[in-house]
Write a structure and sequence with these properties.
The relative contact order is 0.16. The chain has a two-stranded antiparallel ribbon. It is mainly α. It is elongated, with a radius of gyration of 20 Å.
Length: 218
C-alpha cells in the first residue's frame, strides 16, 4: 500500500460520540471552573449551575448511548487502554519523543506503538475512570444530596472536583497534541481516515495487525 493511500482509523459511530463529547465536556469544564471559583453573584452562579447540569445530562446520555450501541467497540477500547507492553515502558522513558521535538527540534527513535500510543492510553484510562466517576458523583450530588450521608456527599464532592481538574488539564494537552498531529485531528472530526504513511510511522503494530483499507479514496 502506498504512503498516499488512506486507512480508516475512526468509524462514524466513534466520530459522532466524539462530537457530542466535545460539545458537552468543553463547556462542562468551563462551567465547572466557574462554579469552583465562584466569581459572580448568586443569580449568575445559579445560571451556571443549571447549564452545568444540562450539559452533564447530555454527556451522560452520550456515554450511555455509545456504551449500548457500540458495546464491542467500548470493550475493545478499554482493552487497548489497559494493556501495556515493554514498548510502552520504553515510550515513557522518552515521553514519546515529544520533548525532544518541541524543545530540541530533534527527532529520536520511538518504540513501535499500536493504534494508540502510551500517552493516549493514559489519557484513555483517565477518560474511562474519571468520566465514570464524574458522571456517578455528579448525578449523586445533584439528585440525592439530602439522602446521602454527609461523609459520602463530601467524598463525592472532592472526587468530582479532583477528577474534573484532572480531565480539564488532560483536555488542554489532548487538544494541543491533537492539533499537532493534524491528520489524526482531521480524521476524528471529518472523514475518519489517516494517510497510510503516517499510520505506518506512528502506529506500526496496528497497521500490521488490524489494517482497514479504504478502497478508491480520492
Amino acid at each position: 500500500m502506498g504512503s498516499k493511500e488512506f486507512i480508516l482509523k475512526h468509524s462514524l459511530g466513534v466520530r459522532i460520540f466524539h462530537y457530542i463529547l466535545v460539545v458537552s465536556f468543553v463547556p462542562l469544564a468551563f462551567t465547572g471552573i466557574v462554579l469552583y471559583f465562584k466569581p459572580y453573584d448568586e443569580l449568575t452562579m445559579n445560571l451556571y449551575m443549571r447549564i452545568h447540569v444540562i450539559l452533564g445530562i447530555v454527556l451522560t446520555l452520550d456515554a450511555i448511548a455509545f456504551f449500548l450501541v457500540g458495546f464491542e467497540r467500548v470493550v475493545t477500547f478499554v482493552k487497548r487502554m489497559f494493556t501495556f507492553f515493554g514498548d510502552d515502558v520504553r515510550w515513557f522513558t522518552i515521553l514519546g519523543g515529544y520533548p525532544q521535538k518541541f524543545l530540541l527540534r530533534k527527532k529520536v527513535p520511538v518504540p513501535p506503538m499500536g493504534k494508540y500510543n502510551s500517552g493516549q492510553k493514559v489519557f484513555g484510562i483517565c477518560v474511562v475512570v474519571g468520566g465514570t466517576i464524574l458522571i456517578v458523583t455528579g448525578w449523586a450530588l445533584w439528585a440525592f444530596p439530602h439522602i446521602l450521608p454527609v461523609g459520602m456527599v463530601l467524598l463525592f464532592g472532592n472526587l468530582h472536583m479532583i477528577f474534573g481538574w484532572i480531565l480539564s488539564i488532560f483536555l488542554l494537552v489532548h487538544i494541543f497534541l491533537g492539533i499537532y498531529m493534524f491528520d489524526d485531528f482531521k480524521a476524528m472530526f471529518l472523514h475518519g481516515m489517516i494517510p497510510y504513511g503516517e499510520a505506518e510511522e506512528t502506529a506500526p503494530k496496528w497497521v500490521k495487525t488490524e489494517l482497514v483499507k479504504i478502497e478508491n479514496h480520492v
